[in-house]
Each structure stands twice: as structure tokens, then as C-alpha cells.
Amino acid sequence: PSMLACELIDNNGKELLKCVNQYIEQWGMEDGFKKYVNEECTFCGSLVDRIVPGRIRDEKEVAELEQKHGYADPLLDVGEVFGVWVIEGDPKLNDVLPFKKAGLEDRVFVVPDMSPYKKRKVRILNGAHTGFVLGAYLAGENIVRDCMQDETIKGFMNKMLYDEVIPTLPLDKQDLLNFAAAVSDRFNNPFVNHELMSISLNSTSKWKARNMPSFLEYVKEKGELPVCLTMSLAAYIAFYSNDIQELNEKGLVCKRPAGNEYVVSDDRWALDFYYEHRNDSAEDLVHAVLT
């Protein structure tokens, strides 16, 4: 039997096996079952690349879909047409699992090492999101698609990807260029209203994971700061500190230049940090963040 881990964490296959073994111990299951799980079962890590912005909020649209389907599905969700599922394991599984027979081998496939695919997705797709959405929100935008209609924001994203991110990736350049080109089309999807505030969740850890590696590798290779990635760091700091109103149980309440309040959601220590430094000058705040 093959277990396909889908949780969006590092080494999700190994972590799933670890969890299963913990439950075997906690529940006092027999040694034979533990031997079966660890020797006869295959736990594969996997990576899903598909933008899924959330459930359908329009009650009329939900009712129409329920009428069409003939049943109500409380887990009904929205997803883009694009989708890739990379499974890490023995390539022989391509002939065991049903995806190849179903003609999906270009979208669902097994490889011995999925790390290049993960690095491509995290640095380009996720890195683009975290790189521009915080500044774009402060500039007055609310959804990703509208950002792609703004030549300044789209130009910033493309310059960041093509000039600063892709050159630092030790992967096939044509594959990276094709993937980056597809990102613009995916972000411009007319049927997906991907809210910037949704993407902003936990931006402290996201910037560290998605953008900082490209930033550091660019500095190492070029000996200078990458303009766009540096701007994205500045936008992150600005988003977390713009006209702070209060800190409450929901998060850090700030106000953007358009006048409306927004709530920054992140780990409590990060929110506490920015609230404690709310009266800092820009120079002092940046120094505190970077140290």
C-alpha cells in the first residue's frame, strides 16, 4: 500500500510515517502491525501546485451548483484549472498508481526527488505572491487579478522573478522561464478572486521561506542588493507597521493609506514585536527587524 502525504510541510511523507508510528505506540498496537506499516507500506512525500483561494461565498452560486449536482457539498471549493501533483518515491509507482493510465502523467507523476519542483514552486509562484501582495495592498489593490492589470505591479513582479529569482536557481533555465510565464497567466485567472489579505497571513515566516533564500543567494552571487526583493522586504515591514491602531485577540490592527483598517494575522510574537515598536522611526524599526 502507498500512503501519499499532502500536508504542506517539509518532508511530509516522513512526518506522516512518524505520526503513524506514534499512534501505534500510544494505542499499544501489536509489533506485527508496526512491522507491516514500516516494511510493507510506502509513505511518499508529495507537493501540490494549485491555487485554491477558498470556498464559494456567493450563496446564489452555491445553490445553483447544488441544484446542478443534485446534492449539497459543504466542502465545495474553488480551484484553478492548472494543477500539478508531484509525488516523491520509486518511479515504478507511475505504473502502479492510476494517474498514468488515466492520461494524467503530465500533471500527476512520481519522481525520486521532488526538491527541484518544490524549490521552483516556492521561489517563483509563492515568492511572487509574498513579494508583491503586501505592497500592492498598501497601494490600494485587493485581489491578485487586479494587480496583473496594473503595469507597475506586474512589471515589478516580472523584474523580481526574471532578474533576481530565476538567476539564483540551479535548475533548467527554460523550465524555469516557462513556469514563470505560466505564473502571470495563473494570477490573471478571471474566475479566481484571490484576496491579497488571504495571502498576507503569516507573512513573516512566508518571506523567510519564499523570498529570503533568493535574496541571500543574489547578494552572494552579485555582491549587491536585489532591488525588487529588497523592496518586498520593505513592503513587508510597512504592511506590519502602517498606522498601527491596536493589538487585540484577532491580530494587529493597522490602517492603510486608503483609510480602511486591516488586521495583520501572524504568530503572536511577531505581532507583539511590531506593536512594541509602533513608535519607532523608520530607521530604528528596520534596524530592529533586521537584528
Offer a quick outline of the entry.
The protein has helices at 12-26, 31-40, 59-69, 93-96, 115-138, 144-147, 151-165, 173-187, 196-199, 203-210, 212-222, 227-241, 268-276, 282-290, and strands spanning 2-4, 42-49, 54-55, 77-78, 84-88, 108-111, 246-248, 251-255, 261-264.
Written description of the protein model:
The chain is α/β, with parallel strands linked by helices. The protein has three domains: 80 residues, no CATH class; 29 residues, no CATH class; 168 residues, N-(1-d-carboxylethyl)-l-norvaline Dehydrogenase, domain 2 (Orthogonal Bundle). Helices cover 53% and strands 12% of the residues. The protein contains 14 helices and nine strands. It has a four-stranded mixed beta sheet. A three-stranded antiparallel beta sheet has the order 7-8-9, covered by helices on one side. Helix 1 packs antiparallel against helix 2 and helix 5 runs antiparallel to helix 7. The radius of gyration is 22 Å and the shape is globular. The model has no long low-confidence stretch (mean pLDDT 94).
What's the arrangement of secondary structure elements?
Blueprint: E1 2-4, H1 12-26, H2 31-40, E2 42-49, E3 54-55, H3 59-69, E4 77-78, E5 84-88, H4 93-96, E6 108-111, H5 115-138, H6 144-147, H7 151-165, H8 173-187, H9 196-199, H10 203-210, H11 212-222, H12 227-241, E7 246-248, E8 251-255, E9 261-264, H13 268-276, H14 282-290
Parallel strand pairs: 1-2, 5-6
Antiparallel strand pairs: 2-5, 3-4, 7-8, 8-9
Helix pairs in contact: 1-2, 5-7, 5-10, 5-12
